[in-house]
Structures are given as structure tokens and as C-alpha cells.
């Protein structure tokens, strides 16, 4: 795999090393964590939408409460 020499802030480098043994693996691990969080958020949004629609339909079927 081709590689590049880049300058990176020491704090960013240290942060990446918290996620992996080297910079490349740390960045890959961070990317995977972000993608998993996005997927979980989308799934949560879908769940909330389904709950809202079902609640509204049940309320419509039950009719007004007096």
C-alpha cells in the first residue's frame, strides 16, 4: 500500500495512538467508531419514527378520549 509523509500535530498523533498501535491503524479505528456511531444513530432515528407512527395510528383508531 502506498504511503505518504505528512506533518501532524503531536496531540493528534497521541490521540490516534490511543486507538491503535500506529497512526494508520489509529485513524482506521477512529473511522470505524464514527461509522458505527452513525449507523446506531440512523437505527435509533428509524426506531423513533416507527414508534411515533404506530402511536399516532393507535390514537387515531382509538378515537378521541373524553
Q: Average pLDDT, to the nearest integer?
A: 92
* Biggest sheet features: none
Strand content: under 5%
The value of Rg in angstroms is: 23 Å
Low-confidence stretches: none
Q: How many domains make up the coordinates?
A: 1
Considering DSSP H and I runs of 4 or more, what fraction of the residues is helical? over 70%
- The number of strands is 0
Distance between the termini: 70 Å
Helical segment tally?
A: 2
Indicate the overall shape.
Answer: rod-shaped
Order of SSEs: HH
Structural class: mainly alpha
Give structural notes.
There is one protein chain. The chain is mostly helical and about 70 residues long. The chain has one domain. The protein is built from two helices and no strands. It has helices at about 10-15, 25-60. It starts with 9 loop residues before the first helix and ends with a helix. The model has no long low-confidence stretch (mean pLDDT about 90).
Secondary-structure blueprint of this entry?
Layout: H1 10-17, H2 23-62
Helix pairs in contact: 1-2
Can you give me a brief rundown of this structure?
The protein is an all-alpha fold and 66 residues long. 73% of the residues lie in helices and 0% in strands. The protein contains 2 helices and no strands.
Keywords:
single chain, 66 residues, mainly alpha, rod-shaped
Amino acid at each position: 500500500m502506498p504511503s505518504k509523509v505528512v506533518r501532524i500535530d503531536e496531540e493528534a498523533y497521541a490521540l490516534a495512538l490511543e486507538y491503535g498501535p500506529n497512526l494508520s491503524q489509529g485513524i482506521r479505528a477512529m473511522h470505524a467508531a464514527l461509522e458505527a456511531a452513525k449507523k446506531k444513530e440512523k437505527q435509533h432515528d428509524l426506531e423513533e419514527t416507527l414508534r411515533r407512527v404506530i402511536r399516532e395510528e393507535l390514537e387515531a383508531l382509538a378515537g378521541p378520549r373524553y
